[in-house]
């Protein structure tokens, strides 16, 4: 086994010659680690006479202290050298010509959302947002969706616990707005935001998508008011020649309920692949607010009425800009985003 002096001299020499922090750390582990030669010296104490053990232990500890100090000094030296090298390597020549920056385009979902918000703000609506996580009561109960309704099943909704879930529609925001403002009238709001459902992603479906729902409650609000509002929406988004039609449907929170189609903006109602030859394209669901919804929020359905509608932001964007796959919105492909500078 190497003696104290030889071990000390060898360690000092190698520490002094260390070229980088990795080499230095390897030396620290080698000499001062549990299996290193310094620790091995301590194992010899058991063979020494008792009188010699204190002096021997003191000498080993002094050796450890000296090597630790030299390693620390060398570490400081190497750290400064590496920092200077990095600074030199990353130095910027301020005399060089600057790089031209590329302006980013708004995402098509942002474009459509802002267009819809501007449209409804001009009609006197407020834009109200809410948390993505809501509870069962505001997502379903207040929207007149009973416990046994299929939308309540776990295969459709993403529950966090027995009570809380990721909202399946922005109706949850509307229910909170109704409760907070009762019994004041009128209520005119649109509620944009992401919604979440258990669904398999394909060209037309996504487990996460965006909605904008509208709600109007006041005195003598009728389906005629709803139709006029949606005609204005269709013409602003798809052109002044657009017409809309109502088809009977069912939604738990509206009665009566309708599906709304807009005349095809590609073929002007003559029939084409986009509208599947019908001349019409379905864009949203709507209807008169159900009396139960008004009652639960603190309103008297005999004194007021209202309408509600919900539009898919992705669906509007796909129709407006000719996008054939909903997954394009979420791939983060810059080439896709670059297409939309011409639509601004």
UniProtKB/TrEMBL annotation:
**Which residues lie in coiled coils?**
57-91
* InterPro entries for the chain: aa-tRNA-synth_II (IPR006195), aa-tRNA-synth_II/BPL/LPL (IPR045864), Phe-tRNA-synth_IIc_asu (IPR004529), Phe-tRNA_ligase_II_N (IPR004188), Phe_tRNA_ligase_alpha1_bac (IPR022911), Phenylalanyl-tRNA_Synthase (IPR002319), tRNA-bd_arm (IPR010978)
Which cofactor does the UniProt annotation name? Mg(2+)
The Gene Ontology terms for molecular function here are: ATP binding; catalytic activity, acting on a protein; magnesium ion binding; phenylalanine-tRNA ligase activity; transferase activity; tRNA binding
**Places the protein is found:** Cytoplasm
Sorted keywords for this record are:
Aminoacyl-tRNA synthetase, ATP-binding, Coiled coil, Cytoplasm, Ligase, Magnesium, Metal-binding, Nucleotide-binding, Protein biosynthesis
Q: How is the cofactor bound?
A: Binds 2 magnesium ions per tetramer.
Q: In which residues is Mg(2+) bound?
A: 255
- Enzyme Commission number(s) from the entry: 6.1.1.20
First-tier enzyme category under EC: ligase
Q: Name one GO cellular component term.
A: cytoplasm
User: Member of which family?
Assistant: Belongs to the class-II aminoacyl-tRNA synthetase family. Phe-tRNA synthetase alpha subunit type 1 subfamily.
Q: What is this protein called?
A: Phenylalanine--tRNA ligase alpha subunit
What is the native source organism of this protein? Absicoccus porci
């Amino acid at each position: 086994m190497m003696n104290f002096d030889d071990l000390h001299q060898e360690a000092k020499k190698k520490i002094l010659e260390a070229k980088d922090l990795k080499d230095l750390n390897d030396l620290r582990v080698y000499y001062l680690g549990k299996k290193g030669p310094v620790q091995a010296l301590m194992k010899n104490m058991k063979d020494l006479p008792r009188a010699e053990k204190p002096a021997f232990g003191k000498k080993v500890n002094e050796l450890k202290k000296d090597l630790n100090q030299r390693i620390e000094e060398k570490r400081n030296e190497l750290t400064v050298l590496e920092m200077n090298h990095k600074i030199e390597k990353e130095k910027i020549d301020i005399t060089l010509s600057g790089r031209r920056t590329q302006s980013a385009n708004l995402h098509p979902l942002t474009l459509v959302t802002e267009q819809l918000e501007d449209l409804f703000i001009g009609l006197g609506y407020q834009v109200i947002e809410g948390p993505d996580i809501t509870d069962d009561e505001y997502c379903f109960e207040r929207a007149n969706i009973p416990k046994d309704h299929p939308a309540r099943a776990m295969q459709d909704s993403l529950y966090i616990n027995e009570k809380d879930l990721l909202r399946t529609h922005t109706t949850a925001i509307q229910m909170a707005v109704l409760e907070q403002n009762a019994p004041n009238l009128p209520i005119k709001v649109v509620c944009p935001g992401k919604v979440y459902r258990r669904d398999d992603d394909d060209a037309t479906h996504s487990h996460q998508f965006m909605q904008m729902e509208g709600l109007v409650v006041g005195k003598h609000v009728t389906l005629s008011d709803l139709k006029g509002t949606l005609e204005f929406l269709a013409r602003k988004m798809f052109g002044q020649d657009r017409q809309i039609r109502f088809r009977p449907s069912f939604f738990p929170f509206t009665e009566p309920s309708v599906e709304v189609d807009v005349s095809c903006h590609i073929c002007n109602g003559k029939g084409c692949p986009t509208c599947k030859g019908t001349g019409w394209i379905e864009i949203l669901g709507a209807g008169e607010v159900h009396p139960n919804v008004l009652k639960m929020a603190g309103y008297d359905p005999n004194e007021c009425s209202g309408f509600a509608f919900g539009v898919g932001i992705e669906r509007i964007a796909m129709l407006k800009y000719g996008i054939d796959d909903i997954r394009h919105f979420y791939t983060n492909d810059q080439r896709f985003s670059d297409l939309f500078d011409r639509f601004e």
